Amino acid sequence: MGLRVSIVLPTYNERGNIEPLLAQLLPLQQHYNLELLVVDDDSADGTAERVRELAHTEPRLRLIRRVGRSGLASAIKEGLLDATGDVALVMDSDGQHEPGAVQRAIERLVDSDLDLVIGSRFHPEAEIHGLSGRRERGSTWANASARFSLPQPYSQLSDYMSGFFALRLEPLLPLIRAVDVNGFKFLYELLAVSKGRLRTAEVPLSFQPRSYGSSKLDLAIFWDFLISILHSLSLRLLPRRAISFGLVGLSGVVVQLLVTQILMLGGLGFEQALPFAVVAAASSNYLINNALTFRFQRLQGLALLRGLLKFLLVASLPVLANVGLASAYYSFVSRDTLWAQLAGILVVFVWNYAASSRFVWNTP
Ligand code: GDD
Ligand code: MN
To answer: How confident is the model at residue 329 (pLDDT cuts 50, 70, 90)?
Structure first.
């Protein structure tokens, strides 16, 4: 009975799923000193209300309710930091992770004296039921890029995206604190910040179809993952948001070239087409950044329109600066037009990123 085990259960609209899951987990108190921590992001379907009710008669159950939804990885981090166990286990609350794997993972962690044990859907003994062919192929691809971008000692792992893992809290707390939560995949980030020092193993995890509700995996989460990989490859030097902002900027270049082409095909001259194309590219950058890079500060309704005007204003200053800088570089530093333009673009990028973070989306 000695081992204190905290199970962290992130929920977002899981009212129909959480209760049966808790009922399956509670018998574990025969083996452990158990704590069940539900981290709910203010679900609209009454998940938190239901958990609160259940907690009235179940002292092992705790509810953390966060207002202003801020994502799976951040919910996991918060749950782990609040957990009081010797060992913590994180799993999905939608019934897709088999409760039977909990004991398997904890025993492996304790018996083999490891830091982290992952429930792997791609273990030879695991079975996957709830994933579409497309999702499964996506995961395979994601796992391959994760393996490539993570420290070498982790290359024998098979499921870097898993939402099921057990770890020792005391020694890992500093790492957990350091995890960058602007993403969906807590596990990937934990592996990345641990620089290959964790003793890890995997146990098979059979994946079941969802009983109620739907998956929250969407394009934004795929985008986050892409950013995570680039972040690791940049040796974690560039801020994640700056990488995202930069990629969106590249898409803006494509928009600008396309719009210029189309308008010129329609009969406009280059000088007439250019201003439209520049505004179109800036607006498309703004909308994509609002949906992806700054989606936790996402602007909507009237604020979206006001934000666009601010963004255009913010972005128009460096256009002037860019021209000034490029010509200054050309006159005073070097006659190389390529480097002159690249210097200009770098300044525009840094300015746009810093100024629009601050003034358009009000983030530091
Ligand atoms: N608190 C909180 N906040 N919980 C969330 C949030 C959020 O923003 N988004 C999702 N969750 C919870 C869900 O309620 C569920 O319990 C769990 O996190 C997983 O979310 P799903 O939306 O069911 O994810 P999935 O089934 O599509 O994704 C599965 O595969 C991924 C790898 O491909 C999960 O196992 C993920 O954990 C895994 O990373
Ligand atoms: Mn799920």
So the answer is: confident
Q: Reduced to 3 states, what is the DSSP secondary structure of residue 128?
A: strand
Ligand approaching nearest to the C-alpha of 161 = 1
Quick: pLDDT tens for 82-114.
999 999 999 999 999 999 999 999 999 999 999
* For range 326-353, the mean pLDDT: 74
Cα–Cα distance between 39 and 169 in angstroms, integer?
A: 17
β 61-65/200-204 pair status: unpaired
Atom of ligand 1 nearest to the CA of 66: 1
Ligand 1 near 93 CB (within 6 A): yes
d(CA 58, CA 51): 10
- Beta-strand runs (E) in 12-120: 33-40, 61-65, 87-90, 116-120
| CA gap 296, 224 in Å, rounded | 12
Please state the atom number of ligand 1 nearest to the C-alpha of residue 92. Answer: 16
- 196 confidence band (pLDDT: 50, 70, 90): very high
Q: Residue 285 is encoded by which pair of tokens?
A: 């950058």
Sequence-ordered list of residues with C-beta below 8 angstroms from that of 353, at least 6 positions apart, any chain: 241, 242, 245, 246
The answer, yes or no, to whether any atom of ligand 1 lies below 6 A from the CB of 215, is yes
Closest ligand relative to 21 C-alpha: 1
Q: Which residues, listed in sequence order, are joined to residue 10 by a DSSP beta bridge?
A: 39
The residue nearest atom 6 of ligand 1, judged by CA position, is 72
Q: Look at ligand 1, atom 21, and give the residue with the nearest C-alpha.
A: 215
CB 292 within 8 Å of CB 245: no
Mean pLDDT of the 182-208 span:
91
> What domains can you pick out in the chain, each with its CATH number?
4-217 (3.90.550.10), 240-359 (no CATH)
Pairing of strands 165-168, 116-120: antiparallel
